[in-house]
Automatic annotation (TrEMBL):
Keywords: Coiled coil, Membrane, Transmembrane, Transmembrane helix. The lineage of its organism: Bacteria, Pseudomonadati, Bacteroidota, Flavobacteriia, Flavobacteriales. Residues 83-117 form a coiled coil. This is Uncharacterized protein. It comes from Kaistella antarctica. The chain crosses the membrane at residues 9-29, 49-67. It comes from the Bacteria.
Length: 118
């Protein structure tokens, strides 16, 4: 599968933004618990649901992102293997071409020797 680096960069930026908001949500939850411990009251009751939804989104995005990293690593290994294979194949063709050139030169030299004798 061929992918665009701009897409990976954009997806990475989205992941960083969601991570930032998730950290903020956890900090807010921590602050919420500390403030409740000291007796302060909050008017918003949906803090836990916001934190849970952000956490679920972050986990899903991390799973997708790590799957893409795994695909990228496997693709990179495959390309490295193919490149090494093609380099070996090219070297074999070069060696074969040099051998054929040498054989051609030997035949040409023999023909020249025979022409000199005749």
């Amino acid at each position: 599968m061929r992918r665009n680096n701009a897409t990976d960069f954009f997806f990475g930026i989205i992941l960083i933004v969601f991570t930032f908001f998730c950290v903020l949500a956890f900090l807010k939850a921590g602050l919420h618990m500390v403030m409740k411990f000291f007796g302060f009251q909050f008017n918003d009751d949906n803090t836990e649901s916001i934190i849970l939804s952000v956490f679920i989104i972050l986990v899903v995005l991390l799973i997708i992102y790590f799957n893409r990293i795994k695909e990228y690593i496997l693709l990179k290994k495959d390309l490295v293997f193919k490149r090494k294979y093609l380099e070996i194949l090219l070297q074999n063709y070069k060696n074969e071409l040099e051998t054929k050139k040498a054989n051609y030169q030997n035949i040409k030299n023999r023909i020249d020797e025979i022409d000199e004798i005749l």
